[in-house]
Design goal:
Blueprint (H helix, E strand, L loop, with lengths): L10 E5 L6 E2 L2 E2 H15 L9 E5 L2 H10 L6 E4 H4 L4 E7 L12 H8 L2 E9 L9 H11 L3 E4 L14 H9 L8 H15 L6 E8 H4 L8 H8 L4 E8 L4 E9 L1 H4 L4 H15 L4 E5 L5 H16 L1
Parallel strand pairs: 1-7, 1-8, 4-5, 4-6, 6-7, 11-12
Antiparallel strand pairs: 2-3, 9-10, 10-11
Length: 311
């Protein structure tokens, strides 16, 4: 880095809320923090996006970040691709819930940090890291020098599934009706009920596991495969929010467990078919992966849009 002239925010850390957010060498929560908190704080009127670089230890994280950014001006690579090059600002996402020998490798960290000419930002887990780790030492150095360590405000209702929130999960589930064998769906149901209770003027209610053949009676718009899929008695949407007075659907909600619904699985193909069918019948759908975030905000936004439509 250049010589210190007292510039602000030379070193910054964003820590996710605690939890096991990493999946198969990518961490969606760190990506959400990167996109919604870290990058907006780093970009200003004098910042050229081409002068920002994002580094991750794993190719899966690099690929996922690149696919989710709304610009191709910011370079995203593994540390090896950045070797020998520099950027004004470097953001490093560590991915692992607890650092491993690979993500904590001193050589790779040294290369990543030294790519930054003016600013370095670390996006990392809020979980306690080993005291003898290099990431732990870096956090201690940044804290000692009074630079910013920011606790992310991005969370998910599904954080309750993690062992760190066992007590909070049990307390929440005890207060809400169990409608499914899956705790993720019970958590979503409880949150929907709470949200709708606060918007009672909309006269909306929610059904769990609404059969698709009761939602779509006329299959004229469907091809043979889609029609067969809809007629299956086990085919359903996880949740249907509907107007209890008009008996009209407002929107559907699906809860997608990461491993069961990931790209390449048979369920992923069925999910895309369901998406297409609901679109044909003008039934909005919200999909929430259990490793995502901001579910409540997205549901409330959908309800606000509905309220404006019927007002």
């Amino acid at each position: 880095m250049t010589q210190d002239h007292g510039e602000e925010n030379v070193l910054t850390v964003y820590q996710t809320v605690t939890g096991d957010h990493c999946r198969e060498h990518f961490n969606q929560r760190e990506i959400d923090v990167l996109k919604n908190e870290a990058l907006p704080s780093l970009k200003d009127k004098d910042t050229d996006l081409k002068n920002i670089g994002i580094i991750a230890p794993y190719k899966d994280q690099v690929t996922t970040i690149a696919g989710q950014l709304d610009t191709d001006e910011i370079e995203v690579h593994t540390v090896h691709k950045f070797q020998g090059r520099e950027k004004d600002t470097i953001v490093l996402t560590t991915v692992d819930n607890i650092v491993t020998d690979f993500s904590d490798d001193p050589y790779l960290l040294n290369v990543a940090i030294s790519r930054a000419k003016n600013k370095f930002c670390l996006v990392t887990s809020g979980n306690d890291q080993p005291s003898d780790s290099n990431i732990g030492d870096l956090l201690a150095y940044i804290r000692y020098n009074n630079f910013q360590i920011i606790q992310s405000e991005i969370y998910s209702i599904f954080d309750l599934l993690y062992k760190q929130y066992t007590a909070a999960r049990l307390e929440f589930l005890q207060k809400h009706l169990a409608v499914s064998e899956y705790e993720s769906e019970n958590i979503m149901y409880g949150k929907i009920v709470d949200i709708l209770h606060d918007r009672s003027q909309l006269a909306l209610t929610v059904n769990c596991h609404q059969p698709l053949n009761m939602l779509i009676r006329n299959t004229d718009r469907l091809n043979e495969e889609e029609s067969h899929y809809v007629s299956n008695m086990w085919t359903h949407v996880d949740f249907l929010i509907y107007n209890s007075i008009r008996k009209e659907p407002v929107f559907a909600i699906e809860v997608d467990g990461f491993h069961y619904h990931k790209i390449g699985t048979p369920q992923y193909k069925r999910d895309r078919m369901k998406d297409h069918i609901l679109k044909l019948y003008n039934i909005p759908l919200l999909r929430f992966a259990t490793n995502g975030s901001n579910e409540i905000g997205k549901i409330e936004q959908a309800l606000d849009e509905y309220a404006m439509k019927v007002s």
